[in-house]
Amino acid sequence: MSMMRLIRANTSSCFLLSTTARTFSTSSASASASAAAIEAERSIKEGGRNNWSRDEIKSVYDSPILDLLFHAAQVHRHAHNFREVQQCTLLSVKTGGCSEDCAYCPQSSRYNTGVKSQKLLSKDAVLEAALKAKEAGSTRFCMGAAWRDTVGRKTNFKQILEYVKEIRGMGMEVCCTLGMIEKQQAEELKEAGLTAYNHNLDTSREYYPNIITTRSYDERLETLKHVREAGINVCSGGIIGLGEAEDDRVGLLHTLATLPTHPESVPINALLAMKGTPLEEQKPVEVWEMIRMIASARITMPKAMVRLSAGRVKFTIPEQALCFLAGANSIFTGDKLLTTPNNDFDADQQMFKLLGLIPKAPDFSNDAKGKDFEAENCEVAVSN
Ligand code: SF4
User: What is one GO cellular-component annotation here (predicted)?
Assistant: First the structure.
């Protein structure tokens, strides 16, 4: 072959190669250009936003699962130290006998679940539990009371304020979940040193009446408004596995991600179907459903602490690892979550070691926030 013919032959094979390469890169680019990829890139470049349309969130949620997982992991690494996981301990300080009809809850007095109504735990019992949690590595202590609201519970509420002060004084973040609260109560909790208030939206606005009839979605948002106005961090998420459609999961994420300020914590719970409740026959949530929810929450609310909450006990360590990869960076530790079982403490410590996770230090930066924080914006949340 002459030199000229050789060059021509090589040029042509190079052309073929480069054409093949371009074809390959074009198809790989289009394969990766899912809504998850596009929105993750946008979240990384521009930060969180609260003008999401429901369709946009649906497109993220519907992205191919491995792509969703991959891009959520990118957002997670951009917005957080991916090794840090917050450890919270949740104690039921007042168990059972609740007047509400939440269909998943064994503490409702309307269902025959065997959970007995108890009085508010004493100060000694609560502080002892908080100390134990702190010694075990928890940085946030959350107190839950099975109440519809705190109106008319002046004595108990005063006691709770005292518990908050004491636990905050122990160098822990303090969270409460006491049902609906008024503006005045939120301010008193803030004054006592409360870090965060938990009040979940549970599900979408449309599906909500199938789960709770004794308080409205707007009442829930009203409580979140009071919490936000008082300058307390908002902890609000939901539960999957209630019999809702995937569109309801998208609806829940849409409500949370379009609040004027994203919740600082977003717990994602998988239903633990409890005997005696109307949802006792629900089938268990699969880990892929949790991953899809967590990853979508991570992309749409990049800065939030996304908590792998109730139901974690059903997942193996490799399954939990996928949830952490998808963007979960908070868990409940301790053997009970209110009245439902939770993971063994030692097993959690081993999991941290195995996965190279480290406990997140407490954050008190919110202490300086004033009570007028975002007050005007919160109006929008309630009227949505
Ligand atoms: S979830 Fe809370 S408000 Fe609903 S029944 Fe249970 S304790 Fe009561």
Answer: mitochondrion
Q: Residue 318: enclosing H or E segment and its boundaries?
A: helix 317-325
Unique residue bearing structure tokens 């491995």? 66
- Asked if the structure places residue 152 within a domain, the reply is yes
Containing domain of residue 175, as a range? 78-383
Q: Is 129 in the pocket of ligand 1 (CB under 6 A)?
A: no
- Averages of pLDDT over runs of 10 residues in the chain (384 residues) are 38 35 39 87 94 98 97 97 92 93 95 93 95 88 93 91 96 94 95 96 98 96 97 97 97 98 96 95 96 98 95 93 97 71 79 94 68 36 32
In a domain, 45, yes or no: no
Q: What was the pLDDT predicted at 13? A: 38
Q: Is residue 189 part of a domain?
A: yes
pTM of the model: 0.85
Please report, for the domain that includes residue 231, its CATH number.
3.20.20.70
Alpha-carbon gap, residue 105 to 193, rounded angstroms:
29
Active-site hit among 140, 307, 312, 323:
307
Dihedral (Cα; 383, 178, 49, 373), 10-degree rounding:
80
E strands, 170-320, where?
A: 173-177, 196-198, 233-235, 238-240, 265-270, 305-308
Q: Is residue 10 one of the residues assigned to a domain?
A: no
Residue-level pLDDT at 10 = 39
Instruction: Quote the number of domains for the chain.
Output: 1
Q: What are the start-end ranges of the E strands in the chain?
A: 84-94, 140-145, 173-177, 196-198, 233-235, 238-240, 265-270, 305-308, 330-333, 336-337, 340-341, 358-359
